TrEMBL record:
There is a cross-link at residues 146-148 (5-imidazolinone (Ala-Gly)). InterPro entries: Aromatic_Lyase (IPR001106), Fumarase/histidase_N (IPR024083), HutH (IPR005921), L-Aspartase-like (IPR008948), Phe/His_NH3-lyase_AS (IPR022313). Pathway: Amino-acid degradation; L-histidine degradation into L-glutamate; N-formimidoyl-L-glutamate from L-histidine: step 1/3. It comes from Aminobacterium colombiense (strain DSM 12261 / ALA-1). It is an enzyme of class 4 (lyase). Contains an active site 4-methylidene-imidazol-5-one (MIO), which is formed autocatalytically by cyclization and dehydration of residues Ser-Ser-Gly. GO terms for biological process: L-histidine catabolic process to glutamate and formamide; L-histidine catabolic process to glutamate and formate. The lineage of its organism: Bacteria, Thermotogati, Synergistota, Synergistia, Synergistales. One of its GO terms (molecular function) is histidine ammonia-lyase activity. The keyword DNA-binding does not apply. The keyword Cytoplasm applies. This is Histidine ammonia-lyase. Belongs to the PAL/histidase family. Transmembrane segments: none annotated. It is found in: Cytoplasm.
């Protein structure tokens, strides 16, 4: 899918939404001319240093525990190539195309700030990759998240030398072969360039940015699913009263309560049954508190990721005006590691409470609805087993939600003796998110079926729009049917944002 918009990279103004445009919708990328001046000045200074004898890490020394080993002038270009060859040792399945595009975009954006010593030609080649749709093959496993994402970023960088593999137009092939086909020449990296390309938090941040964008939309879907379940279970509206939430004014909590009120506005079902009890079970009554806390968690993560995507995270950093290279630790992934562990926990809780609502929907002793939401239960099992599937997924999430950032393992002969594990934290955060979306699809399917038993009463404005959209894809089940494709269809509606768009058309944008 093409995208006409051009994202101009200057190292300071990239947004999470921009990342989605480039990674997912193939928006083109340009380098800001004013930023290139800083890149050139830093590159010139590195060239000057590489010709001299001052000891500067990564320019005329080895790496990691080998930082004390001097590298002679004649070997300094070979040092950069050796760095990438030896560090490109990832394992596991390759990252998907959109993740690789996000990784390339973030690498360009950090390098263009002019503190890394990269040549403009090297940056331009990465930009060409994005605009031409050339995607390096980057294995998904192998990073400890400090010194940054050395291993996966080396797989990105080594293709610039014509080594390794790339995907182009859906085909995996050696980079060298594609270069020949397209009339491109491999690059020769100068001093510091290999280290500039492979050192930093780019991979974990790219995964985090895409997962976070989807997570925010998933939280809106969670409110829609919850409102459908509330109506289907003939829940009462009192827990969503604005006055209650004003006394505990968390932004997320107040937002969810407002969303639920708007979704069920005008509901004859809620109106008819609201005098039957004063309060519901926690999975209904505490939706603002639980969904809201996850929203507040994602606000925290959004703030951290927004900083990181415009940060310089390689080492050493070059300060041209002061003519110094300073060795530091900006490559350490701890800020993203903690944030993505929090993200995973927040999304796991969305799945947990959703599964509890599904369990209530299928339990006739709690719901007052036909057992397992089907007529002639016994002969028909109805929606009994989708709840099992949801339960299995939330159980998986509980294991995955164990934080990876509390683990560390020393590397590089104990020179690098505390690492973040942030890349795995981001990867499993994304897995938890995808699992949560599956549970929500099961809730949406089950709640739509349950709502049909109140067919003579009109639902709320928002829930009616959601129900109508689900029914366009999935029929009401009178008898047992093959459920797998029905769950898939609801997932696809979510993936295309069709339910969300239908709801927002009916009641205005959800917060």
């Amino acid at each position: 899918m093409g995208h006409s918009e051009v994202i101009v990279l200057d190292g300071h103004s990239l947004s999470i939404e921009d990342i989605v445009k480039v990674a997912r919708h193939n928006a083109k990328v340009e380098l800001a001319p004013e930023a290139l001046e800083a890149v050139e000045r830093a590159s010139d200074l590195v060239h000057e240093w590489a010709s001299g004898n001052d000891v500067i890490y990564g320019i005329n020394t080895g790496f990691g525990d080998l930082a004390t080993v001097p590298i002679s002038r004649k070997d300094r270009r070979q040092l950069q190539e050796n760095l990438l060859k030896s560090h490109a040792c990832g394992v596991g399945e390759p990252f998907d195309e959109e993740t690789v595009r996000a990784i390339m975009l973030l690498r360009i954006n950090t390098l263009i700030k002019g503190h890394s010593g990269i040549k403009i030609a090297t940056l331009q080649r990465l930009t060409d990759y994005l605009n031409m749709g050339i995607h390096p093959m980057i294995p998904s496993q192998g990073s400890v998240g400090s010194s940054g994402d050395l291993c996966p970023l080396s797989h990105l960088a080594i293709t610039l030398l014509g080594i390794g593999e790339v995907f182009y137009k859906g085909r995996r092939q050696p980079a060298q072969r594609l270069f020949r086909k397209l009339g491109m020449s491999p690059l020769n990296l100068e001093a510091k360039e290999g280290l500039a390309l492979n050192n930093g938090t780019t991979v974990m941040t790219a995964i985090a940015a895409l997962a976070l964008y989807d997570g925010v939309n998933t939280l809106k879907m969670a409110d829609i699913a919850a409102a459908l379940s509330l109506e289907a279970l003939h829940g009462v509206p009192f827990a969503f009263d604005e006055r209650t939430h004003a006394l505990r004014p968390y932004r997320g909590q107040m937002t969810v309560a407002s969303n639920i009120r708007r979704l069920i506005a005008g509901s004859q079902i809620i109106e008819k049954f609201k005098s039957e009890r004063v309060q519901d079970a926690y999975s209904l009554r505490c939706m603002p508190q639980v969904h809201g806390a996850s929203r507040d968690a994602l606000d925290y993560v959004w703030d951290k990721v927004s900083i990181e995507i415009n940060a310089v995270t390689d080492n050493p950093l070059i300060f041209v005006d002061d003519r110094v290279a300073i060795s530091g630790g900006n490559f350490h992934g701890q800020p993203i590691a903690l944030a993505m562990d929090f993200f995973g926990i927040a999304m796991a809780e969305i799945a947990n409470i959703s599964e509890r609502r599904v369990a209530r929907l299928v339990d006739s002793s709690l719901s007052g609805l036909p057992p397992f939401l089907i007529q002639e239960s016994g002969l028909n099992s109805g929606f009994m087993i989708p709840q099992y599937a949801a339960a299995s997924i939330v159980s998986e999430n509980k294991v995955l939600a164990h934080p990876s950032s509390v683990d560390s393992i020393p590397t590089s002969a104990n020179q690098e003796d505390h690492v973040s594990m942030g890349t795995y934290g981001a990867r499993k955060g994304r897995t938890i998110l995808n699992n949560a979306r599956k549970v929500l699809a099961i809730e949406l399917l089950s709640a739509a079926q349950a709502l049909d038993f109140s067919i003579l009463l009109k639902p709320g404005a928002g829930t009616k729009a959601a129900h109508h959209m689900i029914r366009k894809a999935v029929p009401f089940l009178k008898y047992d049917d093959y459920l797998y494709p029905l769950i898939r269809r609801v997932q696809e509606l979510m993936d295309r944002s069709e339910i969300l768009h239908a709801v927002e058309e009916a009641i205005g944008p959800l917060d």
